[in-house]
Amino acid sequence: MFLKTFKPRNSSLRWKRKILILQKFNYFNKFYINLKNNSGRSRNSSILLKSKSNIKNFKYFFYDDKRTWSTLLGVIIGLKLNNINNLIGLVKFSNGSLSTIKVANGLSIGNYVKSTYFPLKLYKISLLGFRVFLKLLKQNMIFFDLGKYGNKNKYIKSSGTFSQVLQINKELNLILIKLPSGKKKYITFDYLCTLGRNSNIFKKFLTIGKSGTNRNKGKNVIVRGVAMNPVDHPHGGRTKTNKPEVSPWGWVTKHSH
What we know:
By secondary structure, the chain is an all-beta fold. The chain has one helix at residues 212-216, and strands at 2-5, 17-20, 32-34, 59-61, 74-81, 87-93, 98-102, 112-113, 131-133, 142-148, 163-169, 174-178, 184-188, 191-195. The two termini are 43 Å apart.
């Protein structure tokens, strides 16, 4: 994986930056499913999501986010970037089954990954990318993709982010971690995490070059309500006051805590 720059043959390529992977993704079509793209509209063609538009070759991509169905040892045989710019690896387990998981930074084709619920001292090979419980970690270790067993990941999911273990309290079954935002938080031992740092650390250097790149991904431009006319939005026509902010249909968009 590396960051590619382009020759400025036109204005859209002058500042464009793109991430490239040297190896293609194997068994590419096995984890895609064709579904109808409604472009953010209902059956009556009314707008439900203003930020959605039509997208070419619309497909859903599936990958194992929980990593709890198998504890077998697997090897990475392929890599690919998904739509949210996370590095996805194709893993072949010891029983011959295939799966797709989110890869930790530093892993490449040929590395081993595993979901283990036993003490880490039993394994002398590289533990980077292993899925373990928080109670198995030691102080100052880093991890990402934090979530409860059987549920989706809740914390530390963005590209290049990681969290660190600050303090372990075995009497109360609590662990103090430092989130990427700098906030410190107590978490129970029944959470799962992936060892290492999240992949694709070059995402912050990306430049799409032109708005057509996002339009091809199905992202539509969002116009501010205060820039519209009163017939188009409640905020339009210089009518915005101290009233709560609402959506184009008059729903309150902010809630007090």
